[in-house]
Amino acid sequence: MTDLAFILLPFLLLVVPAVLLVRAARRPGWTRVEARIVAARLGENDAGSVTQYFPVLSVAYVIGGRDQVALDLPVARESHPDARRVRGLLSDRYGVGAPVDILCNPRSPERASIA
Fold it and tell me: Which of the ends of the chain has fewer CB neighbours closer than 10 A, N or C?
């Protein structure tokens, strides 16, 4: 039973909060916006017995005619125990200048999450 807890702990710490954040972001009134990546780095969560790596993005976007920047948005759906695989994603898919869809609240445009 203890081994199962160590396997599930990283899942609970990474995936569940990401799912809750996306669900919250999909409330009525939240808008899907195309953003541009301005910075990307490798994030990690070493809770439990297996370290999970994932992309962390900072993005720039325009909503309501105003320029916005959202910092350190995790891409939890891309988490993986192999850091090299995630580094490959950073260079292939999440390079500076690449487009990425985000969800943001037009009434509070600084609030955003990766779509």
Answer: N
